[in-house]
Target: DUF6362 domain-containing protein
Amino acid sequence: MTQWTPSLVEERLAQAAYVLKRLPEPRRQGYFSTWPEVVHDFADKVGQQPQPMRIVPSPAAISRMEETLSWTVGLDPVDGKIIWLRAHGERWKTICWTVGLQRSAAHERWLYALCVIAFRLNGRRLNRSYSKRKVIELAGAVRR
Model:
């Protein structure tokens, strides 16, 4: 059993976001095409963009991703949005525009949410009287 830290939680969320990007697109059930498959010759393919290859993630990676999806339950909705936007690799400027916060406030809420998740995963209870900065200091997530 590992001791969860905010940096480990951040890595796991980034992995889950990467797995979500690699999952195949959902298809509607019951629809099909009666047209034959089109076979392109070389002249048709000149100038076309190559189709991106989709590598389906392993079942273990999907299981870890599904476990990670439940971690944001119970967080403030804005904090959960910041967490997932950052896990998907969004820039802070885009995150701040999306949630309507300044950079420092969004970063503090992101750190706080990571610390809360780490506390929960370690089985520790969080005192509600603690401020966000106190929780961040207790988790050791302050980066200098």
Observations:
- Residues 103-121 form the longest helix (19 residues).
- The CA atoms of residues 95 and 101 lie 8 Å apart.
